[in-house]
Design goal:
globular
Length: 169
C-alpha cells in the first residue's frame, strides 16, 4: 500500500524582502513566495513515511511569473527507489501575506499564509490525507527550510525535512 507519492517536497513558495543589513538583527525575514520560487530552485531533504525507513528526496524546480502575477512552478521530484515524478504548482498572492492556488498532487485548493516570518501552506491529498508545510526563509534570502507534515485522521503518517536553495533566476 502506497500512502504517499505526492507532495514530497511541497516546496513551493516563499521569501525575499530587504537585505539583512536593512532589517533589525532579530526581525524575521519576510516571505515573498512568488519572488523566491521564480527562477531555478533545488531542494534536498529527508522523507519519513510511517513504518518505512527514511529516504532522501531531491527536488528541482523552475518557476516563472505569468502576466497575471501567478507563479507557475514546475518541479521534478526524485526519491530513491521511485521513478522521478513531475508536478506543477500555480500560486498567486490574493492579499498581502495570503496565497491561493493549485498543485497537481493536491485533491483541492492550496492555501498559504505568512505567519511570523514563515509561510504556512495547507492542502488536501487523495486518500484522506492532509498536508501542512512550514517554510522559513534563511537570512541570506537565497535559501529556506521546509518542514512538511502529512496526517491521516489526525495521525502523522509522513514528515519531510528539506533545505531549498535558489540557484538561478
Amino acid at each position: 500500500m502506497r500512502l504517499f507519492h505526492a507532495p514530497l517536497a511541497l516546496i513551493p513558495l516563499l521569501l525575499a524582502g530587504p537585505p539583512a543589513a536593512a532589517r533589525a538583527p532579530d526581525a524575521p525575514v519576510r516571505f515573498d513566495a512568488i519572488r523566491f520560487f521564480a527562477g531555478h530552485t533545488e531542494g534536498a531533504g529527508r522523507l519519513k513515511i510511517v513504518m518505512r525507513p527514511p529516504t532522501l528526496v531531491d527536488v528541482h524546480g523552475d518557476g516563472r511569473v505569468m502576466e497575471d502575477g501567478t507563479l507557475l512552478l514546475r518541479q521534478t521530484v526524485e526519491q530513491w527507489g521511485v521513478p522521478a515524478k513531475q508536478r506543477e504548482w500555480r500560486i498567486r498572492q490574493v492579499t498581502p501575506g495570503h496565497y491561493a492556488g493549485t498543485l497537481s498532487d493536491a485533491a483541492g485548493p492550496v492555501v498559504g499564509e505568512v505567519i511570523g516570518g514563515r509561510l504556512k501552506l495547507a492542502f488536501r491529498m487523495k486518500g484522506g490525507l492532509h498536508a501542512t508545510q512550514w517554510i522559513e526563509a534563511a537570512a541570506d534570502g537565497r535559501s529556506a527550510h521546509n518542514r512538511m507534515t502529512v496526517r491521516k485522521m489526525g495521525v502523522v503518517v509522513v514528515h519531510l525535512d528539506e533545505t531549498i536553495r535558489r540557484t538561478g533566476g
